[in-house]
Design goal:
The chain is mainly α. 52% of the residues lie in helices and 6% in strands. The chain is built from 6 helices and 2 strands; from the N terminus they run αααββααα. It has a two-stranded antiparallel sheet. Helix 1 (5-19) packs across helix 4 (76-84) and helix 4 packs across helix 5. The longest helix is centred in the last third of the chain and has 17 residues, at 110-126.
Length: 145
């Protein structure tokens, strides 16, 4: 399974909003500049996050985006699923862990795929946006010239 650039950028955008979470709206062009992502591509990524209620937006000259909840209330899994869809390693394992395969009764690898899916989802759901924010802040504090 490979996370696309949309998934990677969605985490970066949400992390940027968490790091600049003053209650004020953050212009998308500011996030784009900091994250070195084109504004056009960011608009494609922020749209499903907004529709899912993950961010609050306001259009206009004083518009921008901010998180709809506290960073601790978002998991990386939730964010990734918004832009990537179900995080499953194969087509035969569904998002809820059930098997959708005509060969399931005699497939020698089905338990492996189910287990891998479980491990992936357990991990991405165990890391919050707050965790990523704290790691980023700690990395900035460790910088020495």
């Amino acid at each position: 399974m490979k996370i696309s650039t949309k998934g990677r950028y969605a985490l970066r955008i949400m992390l940027d909003l968490a790091l600049h979470n003053s209650g004020e709206l953050v212009p998308l062009k500011d996030i784009a500049a900091r994250q070195e992502i084109t504004l056009k591509y960011m608009e494609q990524i922020i749209s499903p996050l907004s529709k899912a209620g993950f961010v609050i937006s306001l259009r206009g000259s004083s518009g921008g985006y901010r998180l709809a909840r506290r960073p601790s209330e978002y998991t990386c899994g939730d964010i990734l699923r918004i832009v990537e869809g179900p995080l499953v390693p194969t087509a035969c394992v569904t998002a809820d862990g059930t098997i959708d395969c005509p060969r399931a009764e005699w497939c020698p690898t089905i338990d492996f795929w189910r287990g891998l899916s479980g491990v992936i989802n357990e991990y991405v759901d165990s890391v919050t946006l707050e965790d990523l924010k704290n790691r980023q802040l700690a990395a900035q504090d460790d910088y020495v010239i």
